[in-house]
Amino acid sequence: MSNIKTTYALFDILDYKNEAVLSSYSLSITPLTFKARIPGNDGTTPPLNDVKATFDFGDGSFGHLLTSTHAYEYPGKYNVRLVLRDCNNNSVLASYSTDITITDYITNTFTATFTDTAFNLSAGELSAPLTITSQTPAYQDFQDIYFSLSGFDCPNYYNLKSNKFNNLKNYYSFYEKDYLPVLSGYEYVEINKISLSSENIYIRLSGNNDTAGVGPTAFAIVNCISADSGSLLVGSSGNQIVYFKTEQQTPWNKPVTISLFKDRNNIFAKGTQGYKNTDYLNNFTVSLSSLVGATSGQAVSSIAITSNGIPSESDEVDTFTISPVQYKGLGIPFILSPKNSDNYTMKALSAATPVFSLLSGHDNALTGVAVDTQYYTMSSLGSTLSTIDTNFWYRGLLTFNDNLSTVPAVIGLSARCIFENTLTSTVSTITGFAPFTCYPKNYYEIYKHNEDINYQEVFNDLRFQEILIDKNILFTDFLGTIFGDVSSNYTVLGKKLWEKVFNFPSNNNDIDFCDITSLVSLSELVDDPGLVFDRSLSQQPALLERILSNLSVSYNNFRGTKNKFEGNFDPQGRTTRDKYGKNLGEKLDSLTYEITGGTDIVAYEKFGEVYTRLNTFQPLCALSGAAESTSGNANTYMLSDYSTYISNASGAVYWGWPLMLPGSYTITDVNKFYDFYSLSAAYDNTIIGGLVDYDNGLTTLSYDTPLSSLIGQDNIFDIMVRDTLFSSLSLF
Fold first, then answer.
1. Which of 175, 450, 539, 650 is deepest in the core (most CB within 10 A)?
2. Which residues of 221-251 are buried (b: 16+ CB within 10 A; e: fewer)?
3. 534: pLDDT confidence band, cut at 50, 70 and 90?
């Protein structure tokens, strides 16, 4: 039996600050130093020589020095044990153990804070903003926050059975406030969980131990950015502002309790046995409690008229108001919703049957002339709301017939209804008003060039044989109907064929005018898919694809340009100058005509039959030594003074007109070669180029329509697209 010395050994634990501790963080920059105390140093026991130490750190790792350092990766409670051995390493001299606590530097937790000091709820109204702040250690995925409600039987919005009228029912939910750039406003959106923004958290260790000889500084953990030297990712944090709303008022002294929590099943930490669920030193539940009072004690204030029963709430932007653009023959659905003065929908009401009126030529509900009932029909769709658990909803359908107007009619739908607050037994009569404009179908219409063929007339012109002359049923009623006449729509077979043939180059090869399908093909041909923003546009119904192709043409190419030609001088033998010779005025007497500078004239060369516009400013600067005209005006001169040479006697100089004359002549000789005419200065102003054929009587769009009236919501192009879409869907 060997002679074994036994003694009791201890060890000290020091943190990154060199302070004695029993805890630390699970960070690589905050290791613990374990220093064994050598037995015998106090003189009470014989000293040991050549002692070997083994530290069991409790997480599966070991240290074999009398002073060993170790950093823990994950939080937990660890039992650290020291074992001392003799120089032969064959016997236990002493052992000692102690527990240490390792925590997350960033704990897995969250908080909920209201802007108000108290959590106060009113039925149907949004709560004060609730700020959710969460943080998560780096080894853990960032967690969403879930919620549950207890205290009454109002269901969660996401637990309702699928129904397009779920928004009309009583329910509770949390909401996020989202900004809508297109509408330049906000909306409140129901959420089934609270998803927070996430931002990484980085730290570093500051301080030094005077290795540079400038004096030591205290060690400390400080926040930093990822680019800093020695930075360490320790976790993430995020926040979100949400709102809570419930439609149902709670009974007296029975508050509703809201539980906010993280999903414990998805929260893991790594231990010696692998990953495991843990809630060690973490907070995963927050509870909020409040009574739900009546809707601010307010009476109903107005009726919101919307297309689907989703009016704006509080400061929300109106998203589903009755569209300001409507059409004859198209059913206009609407739902009435009572609102209080804070613009919240009040559901705890009962209502009588509303009374409706339609006003034309209105500015608001207080003006306008009532529309005769022969021009429209109004029907109730209340049966579709039979599953809704409140009885104040009214759903209707408004339809205008073809007798309304041949031009857009400005209309206002006015509703009046009596509502009773079942909680206060208060009866109120309130009104609502929704303005819009009702357009005839195809009110704005564009026809392309070569969409004006009259095939009915073409077939009639081919009836040369006497036996065919009286076959009107075949040529007019049958073939003429199939292929169309000049008044037929562009969808008729004849016009479609004619347009495709004559516009083939521009439709297929001209990137300024080609349709979307051809543009996609051209982009593939040059291997540049970026030429087309959205390839799905080429997969639309034919009518919709046509209108989108036409309206995608640039403004100048779409409407064309007016011809600014002012040289239409040749009347071509016609006595009237409505088409030819528009710019040729009256014939002038070359002996008596007094030219005014800036008022050009026209010279007609008889031999070559050429018309030339003459610049009358040219002689003014050349007649400095000449006598004034008979009128005494220095800006005028006589046509009879025309000269092509320099005369020292008179000082007259060459006028610069491109007239072909002999070397020696008189003004009477000039008349043998030229006639002179006044200039009828007027642009031709015929429209050249462009997509739209304004000469087609079926085109209702004016050339002078400005771009601001064409593009934009509820403007002409938008109206045309809606018209085409509704026609394609057979909604008329």
1. 175
2. beebeeeeeeebebbbbbbbebbbbbbbbbe
3. low
